[in-house]
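Aim 2 progress update. The chain analyzed this quarter is reproduced below.
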Amino acid sequence: MNRIEINVRQRVGNFVKAICAKDIDGVISLYAPDLVSFDLTAPLRHFGADGKRRAWQGVFAQLSGPFAYDVRDLNVTGGHIDMWLRWTACFRQIDGVWLVVHDHVSVPVDPVRGQAVLNLTP
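Predicted structure tokens:
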């Protein structure tokens, strides 16, 4: 494992810990100020970390109970919700810190019905 991968894994590990603790400042510390983000709920696109902060605050407010976050598969679960989703993140080193500058969250979709399929697992 090279130094970049070690640093990014550490950043993601801290991100996971912050999610599990519902630590909004810790979660947002992963994102670059000029982040471009495509998310699951409206608004589907965010420009800047402030928009992503509001999105995460909404998630924390809606889901009670503990969070479990599986880094290997980027599996997010909470309480009675059992749903797989995908997270793709592009990191850039800014002032020596690896930050997410673009991310995309999605779920599988049934193209015939045009609806999200929330009961699939890998």
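Residues 3-116 form a domain with the Nuclear Transport Factor 2; Chain: A, fold (CATH 3.10.450.50). The beta strands are 31-38, 45-47, 67-70, 75-78, 86-94, 97-106, 109-110, 115-116. These observations will guide the mutagenesis experiments scheduled for the next reporting period.
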